[in-house]
User: Fold these one by one.
Assistant:
Number 1:
Amino acid sequence: MARVLMLKCVLCGRTYREREVDYTCPHCGMDGTLDVLYDYDEIKKHFTRECLEKSRDFTQWRYRDILPVNDETNIQPLEVGFTPLYDSGVLAREYGAKKVYIKDDGRNPTASLKDRASAVGVARALDYGKNTIACSSTGNAASSMAGFAAVAGLKSFIFVPESAPEAKVAQLLIYGATVVLVKGNYEDAFNLSTAAIYKFGWYNRNCGINPYLVEGKKTCGLEIAEQLGWEAPDRIFIAVGDGCCISGLYKAFYDLKALGFIDRMPKLVGVQAAGSSPIYHAFKYHLPKVEFVKPDTLADSIAVGAPRNWAKALRAVRQTAGDMVTVTDEEILEAMKELARKTGVFGEPAGVTGFAGFKKMAKERYIGMDERIAIVVTGNGLKDIASARKAVAKPILVEPDINELLKRICC
Ligand SMILES: Cc1ncc(COP(=O)(O)O)c(C=O)c1O
Ligand SMILES: N[C@@H](CCOP(=O)(O)O)C(=O)O
């Protein structure tokens, strides 16, 4: 387990010791999200590529030397991470790139990338001796937290918008969480959860303010680098809502560079839904901070008008000479179909938003023929069947009669 050297505010650069502050920088308030930094020179002495080659732990815990969990016994036995990275020759040929890799994070235990963070969040809640953990969510963070909390024997309280997809709510209830459906959007759920967490003293799993959660999400980037033989791809595309996942990718490559595992960072491309794109807007117009919007997109997981991790997300894009792009709901639905049909990977709307952004940039000729691209699919399509059904035609309904069938399927 890694000893955290310090927490550093992404806005003002002030540093804190591990338990000196709980969540964000006291000086900068909620916007002052913190980086978790380690003693890289010390870690380098025992954490090497050779050690990883010998490791038989094919979960995210193979990177425990750079994860902020203090007590190994607080790690739950669910197999999180080490999801497949598919090399899609079909997509590379179609879009004129050297390589296109699809990282299928819908293959995690509760079917989204959020498991990486929740696994760390639950371990930290146990480290702090808490018996209850809580979060606000559009559904995925919540279902993963509920799953890991259930295994750990922790109570969980979840705040989700009333409109959360049914499958995600079902996951929460099955895992035994107390589910509060909030009459409002994700921001309303976030504000209510923050007030309740403060009042009851629960552990706060909201990744937008809890610095340790992004550390869990970074394992997705660590895996991409390892699966590509410790060479960063040229660009990585990922959906952006609160901005935590893209911040996790940035931190992965930052850590790997600090440890000497890689020598250059990939360009990170954040993709937002056109109807909910405050971080894109701040990037495009060089604003010092984001302006909140009223979100409107069918990609519920990224319907985030008031993103909490905007500062880290903007840094991830700016510091890697990356980019941001927006896609419409129609482009998202089209991407959902195309990805499933060309690679077999079925993503939920936000899950395929990174792919939709890649398609758009490739069509506008921003992708070079010599580029190696990775695209993260952040959540499984079975999480939101209603949206998937919007992307496709209706099935054929027939009487059980071969003549009727022939009439219907032979033109
Ligand atoms: C499936 C899925 N994709 C993308 C995102 C966006 O991640 P972030 O909010 O960390 O930017 C989320 C959750 O927020 C999600 O659940
Ligand atoms: N859309 C996210 C929002 C919160 O997730 P977090 O991991 O960034 O806290 C979700 O899955 O609920």
Number 2:
Amino acid sequence: MATVIDGKGLAAKMRAEAAKDVAALKRAGVNPGLAVVLVGDDQASATYVRSKLRDCEECGIASFDYKLPADASQDEILQLVRNLNDDPKITGILVQMPLPSHLDAEEIIEAISPLKDVDGFHPTSLGRLVRGLPGLRPCTPAGIMVMLDEYNIELAGKNAVIVGRSSIVGKPMAHMLLERDATISVAHSRTRNLDEICRSADILVVACGIARLVKGDWVRPGATVIDVGMDRDEDGRLCGDVDYDDVFNVAGAITPVPGGVGPMTRAMLMSNVVTAARMQAEA
Ligand SMILES: Nc1nc(=O)c2c([nH]1)NC[C@@H]1CN(c3ccc(C(=O)N[C@@H](CCC(=O)O)C(=O)O)cc3)C=[N+]21
């Protein structure tokens, strides 16, 4: 029987903290504002964007919603990003992913001012993380670090296994855990003996996008299991990359889906908007 890590509850606490920080910034004459850019009419993306705008409202952060048609051009989006970079009302810029396939997401991410990169996707933000410098951190792995600390999960000298090597979760997660003196293994689609490597983990972070991939016998008894998956099962229900019912009896602590990593990702975004506004006020 594992401890269930309550991401939803912790995220609510973080939003309350962010709201206090926003109020203090406003008293000091700094007004945080988040621009959210949504290209196309993907339903899931539109839902995520709505929840981010709602989070802003709860935290007292001004939000600016930019909806572009699915056939918007690369130049049109780059021009919008440049305008947002120069707009003092905007202290954070988020371009919702994935973008339609005719667009070059890398070029758009790189056009965002690193001072306003609240997703932490810009090469400057990732480079600063790898170098151990302060900066804006990707929301999902940063939110996971907050959960691990809140539940007093020891990291120094522990084996951390990350399944997935994306630039937004796997790679930054590895560096954040490394910074805290864990021993890191990054597994991916070409990894052999994945179950065996997972069993070596004291902390197992799964971000591969395969519904219920990780089974109970892949997990060392007492290990901490963090499920980043947002998948659909055969019946179309939301589930994670971890077979929760199976792993629950083995793990020491586990994040549920929903109610785990997802809400923390959103709460971390609010925290990053605060950090970015401070960075710009100091610049
Ligand atoms: N530029 C950009 N930044 C992102 O941060 C970003 C993105 N693009 N594109 C899509 C992914 C996905 N993502 C989620 C965040 C929270 C939940 C979340 O709160 N999930 C709820 C459940 C939601 C539901 O019921 O569907 C939960 O896990 O409890 C889900 C997904 C952010 N993303």
